[in-house]
Amino acid sequence: MLRALSRCHAPVVRLLSPRTAVMVETVRGRKSRTEPKAKSKAGRIKTPPPVDPVEMIVLKERYTEYNLILRALRLEFKEQMLRKKYEEEVGSVAEERAKREAEEHRSLMALNDAENLRIHKIREQRMLKEAEAAELKKREAAILRQQELEDYIKEKERQILQLQEEAKDFITPDNLDQRIEEALDNPKNYNFAIDKEGRVVKRTAFQQ
Amino acid sequence: MPMKGRFPILRTLEYLQKGEVVFKKSVKIMTVNYNTHGDLSEGARKFVFFNIPQIQYKNPWVQIMMFKNMTPSPFLRFYLDDGEQVLVDVEGKDHKEITNHVKTILGKSDKVLEAEALAKMELSNPANFGPKKYFLRECISEVEGQVPHPGFVPLPKEMTGKYKAKLAANSDE
């Protein structure tokens, strides 16, 4: 439908013939320029509809008035819309909106800052706890090291004392003869068996 | 084509369109600083993985950058067009909490979004006829229940003009 209308080049005949002549032209329509007129339309004389001059004058006046009023209304509404749009974008409404939005933005930023502060406090506490734990660990490690050092020293001292004890029984060039005599006098018997616990189980008789 | 990645649902249009955060016009850049390891950045990591695609889909003109392992504690930073920088601490927060917080401070509220959607709907009236590209229908004959176009379905004889003219001629005689 729309397509048919868009193809129509000639202006549509006005309802009442306007100022001068009839503005009807041949409409191309379905056929091309070379095709002849249809046989049924051979003797057709197209006449425009008859016009009553008195009626035409009256109608024309009424129509001009009507068009005037309608056009005025349309332009009025258009101006209203444009004004509203202008106010919204540039005028007082926009300023109020901007102010309101700035207010909201400030309050939201305050909210955000409060939130950040809260998390900051939590973080501080966590840091303190961690610092304390680290301090504790360090002290304990120091104590442990101290302990180990002392143990080591004690162990070494014990060993030295034991060595001193054993040194008393050492064979020196002085008591060499004496010790030889002793060894020859007390023969030792190494023929014995032990069980798994280390206790002596059996002793065989001493044979020289 | 098989699904790609650990969470292929993150690549679906449906998931992206479900994003809630639409930034205000003044937000231009968003920066996320977080760590790849550590308990405190867990929420930030999930936020980056699950919610950033939605945010970027809804705000295609906002630049979003991620910085990894440069900070002891994770945070978000927004750069507005008047030079203001908004810092949001996200240490220890859950990704849902982060989204909600961001939506509250810098996102458009639900009311505003609804108003915008309404304004957009007003532009295209479904009652208008015109080219198929912009409107629903081109001609009333396309609507079900109306008289179809004679080009597709011939009219019944009684409605054609020549039949009516013949009737008129016969009755005149």
What does this protein look like?
The complex is a heterodimer of chains A (208) and B (173). By secondary structure, chain A is mainly alpha-helical. In chain A, 62% of the residues lie in helices and 3% in strands. Chain A contains four helices and two strands; from the N terminus they run ααααββ. The radius of gyration of chain A is 64 Å and the shape is rod-shaped. Chain A starts with a helix and ends in a 5-residue tail after the last strand. Mean pLDDT of chain A is 86; it is low at 1-18. Chain B is α+β, with helices and mostly antiparallel strands and 173 residues long. Chain B has helices at 13-17, 42-58, 95-106, 110-123, 161-172, and strands at residues 27-34, 63-68, 75-80, 85-89. In chain B, α2 (42-58) crosses α3 (95-106). The longest helix of chain B has 17 residues, at 42-58. Chain B starts with 12 loop residues before the first helix and ends with a helix. Classes of the chains: A mainly alpha (208), B alpha+beta (173). Chains A and B meet through α3 of A and β4 and α3 of B.
What would the keywords be for this entry?
A: 208 residues; mainly alpha; 4 helices; disordered N terminus; B: 173 residues; four-stranded mixed beta sheet; 4 strands; transit peptide (chain A); Small ribosomal subunit protein mS26 (chain A); ribonucleoprotein (chain A); ribosomal protein (chain A); Ribosomal_mS26 (chain A)
Task: Give a brief description.
The complex is a heterodimer of chains A (208) and B (173). Chain A is mainly alpha-helical.
